[in-house]
Predict the structure.
Amino acid sequence: MTAATLEPTQFQGVTVTVDPAARALEVDDVTKVFSQGPGLIGRLRGKREQRKRVVAVDHISFNVERGEIFGVLGPNGTGKSTLIRLMSTLLMPDSGTVRIFGLDVERDEFKVKRLINRVSVEASFFKKLSPMENLMYGARLYGVNPAYARTRATEILIRLGVEERSMSSPMEDMSRGMQQKVAIARAFLTAPVLLLLDEPTTGLDPHSKREVQAAVLEIRNEHAATVMLTTHDMQEADELCDRIAIVDTGRIVALDTPTALKEMVRLPGESTPTLEDVFLRLTGKKLEEADQENEAKP
């Protein structure tokens, strides 16, 4: 496959053929708002506070081309995960549109699900089952041939540094980092046309991070997948992403290649700035400060 001519994709035995002229992802003026109140404990204590309106995604627009690794970089609590959930049909936008290979996530929800796979920072599993059993269950849902799935699952798990003896042990006995590797393997197994990665390397040690990052490049280069990656790891974004959208308080403050973003804020006579410098100069705060600020919000 190439990024220009994608083969038909199957999910649960149903084939979906994507429009060869459509972009991988189109996000047009999308907004998502949540309401926050006093919560159950507060209500039980008689609190009558008015629910607070929280704008998680604030009129965001961007396009992702086929075969691109597109990064969304920003602190926790600024809408990155909400964006991923909107694209994976777990949430629907309050306004605006999201199209995946020309399919509208609201009107064509089931067709979109056949084209994507998602890895979140908190992956879900059948904890009593083994990694292999979890992967085979996922393969069955996507209509992947069982014999092929078992062979491919073993290859992917080994590629990600999961030992063969661990493949038959219960997931509940594995570390969080190892469970995250299994989640990534599950997504890779179905060879999605669009892979949505929501901070996939959070909690992994440096060696495991490098293995996952290499696997992301492999699925793009060898399987013509388009990848959308959210992260607050500056180095990861710099090394993996073709283009990066920097987000703060639910809005995109800049979008370009890593090199162009650095040149955008580069001062006369200055050596090449880092992405941390880019974020600081565009938002007025360091990334870790923005993380702490968002964590302190009620």
Notes: The first helix runs from residue 39 to 44. The chain has a mean pLDDT of 83. Residues 265 and 278 are 6 Å apart (CA to CA). The longest strand covers residues 52-64.
